[in-house]
Design brief:
three-stranded mixed sheet; single chain; alpha/beta
Length: 285
């Protein structure tokens, strides 16, 4: 959970009815809503670098569970308020509980891990809209996205080793899958900041945009996913997740199974008709 908050401040067919929810007040450390198939989770501790502490970990778990339970969910959006995306763990809280740090860290993670796994396993696209620097557990909050869009002002720092700690919240698991083992080790062990261009070159993020254009560009992608063939996205996510571990023979058969299944769907019929008629497809999901 620990992150580089202090350092980074310095460095500056049928459409189902959808759950329409915004149960968190503006005082919550995490805001969430689910409307028109779009689930939104927004970190809301801008004055504290959107770092995670006991309270925000519980709010985040509740937000994830609320969005995951929404009927007709088509896409999930992760974002943050303020100038930082997520600085990791709340170092100020660590200092306050220095004598009981193991218990504090465990208390922060306990309510969050199952919900975070649920988020990562959702069969819908996840879009991370990274508005500023991130590190520590913020790496996990960014890279859990299937598609990571970022402002060109971002920086990333591993953070953990500066405090004598090690990664959590699947930050190491997600980072290895993005950049490979060698670069993940560099990021965590050397703890050097990476600028936006290096993040793009190494594959931590998929697109960079000027900060004042990021949200508008993200909404285009969010809309594409919200109006697209949801079940096809789910099969793509599953195939890509399994590809690293399946044998070729296993993967060929799984692809065959999914393709035959999708070929019989209303979305496939609509997609083929739209192609022939030279018009945009109107997928029902």
């Amino acid at each position: 959970m620990a992150g580089p908050a202090a350092q980074m401040r310095e460095n500056d067919g049928i459409r189902e009815p959808y759950l329409e929810t915004d149960t968190m007040s503006s005082e919550s450390t995490v805001l969430w809503s689910a409307q028109d198939g779009i689930g939104r989770i927004t970190l809301n501790r801008p004055e504290g670098a959107n770092a995670l502490n006991r309270r925000s970990a519980r709010d985040l778990a509740a937000a994830i569970d609320g969005v995951a339970a929404a009927a007709g969910l088509k896409v999930v959006v992760l974002s943050a308020r303020g100038t930082m995306y997520c600085g990791g763990g709340d170092i100020a809280e660590f200092v306050q509980h220095a004598d009981g740090l193991p218990a504090l860290v465990d208390d922060i993670l306990s309510p969050l891990l199952a919900s975070f796994e649920r988020l990562a396993s959702l069969p819908v696209p996840i879009v991370s809209v990274v508005n500023g620097p991130f590190g520590g557990a913020g790496i996990a909050m960014a890279l859990v996205g299937d598609f990571v869009m970022a402002a060109d002002t971002i920086k990333v720092r591993g953070g953990y080793v500066a405090l004598g700690l090690s990664p959590d919240l699947a930050a190491s698991w997600l980072l290895v899958r993005r950049v490979g083992v060698a670069r993940a080790r560099q990021i965590f062990m050397l703890n050097r900041p990476l600028d936006a261009e290096r993040c793009l070159q190494w594959g931590l993020v998929d697109e960079l945009w000027p900060a004042d254009q990021l949200q508008a560009q993200a909404e285009k992608v969010i809309t594409q996913f919200a109006t697209g063939p949801t079940a096809s996205y789910a099969r793509v996510k599953d195939l890509c997740a399994r590809a690293e571990h399946n044998s070729l023979a296993e993967h060929l058969q799984l692809e065959r199974k999914y393709l035959v299944e999708r070929a019989g769907s209303a979305d496939a019929r609509e997609g083929v008709r739209a192609f022939i008629e030279k018009r945009p497809a109107r997928f029902g999901g």
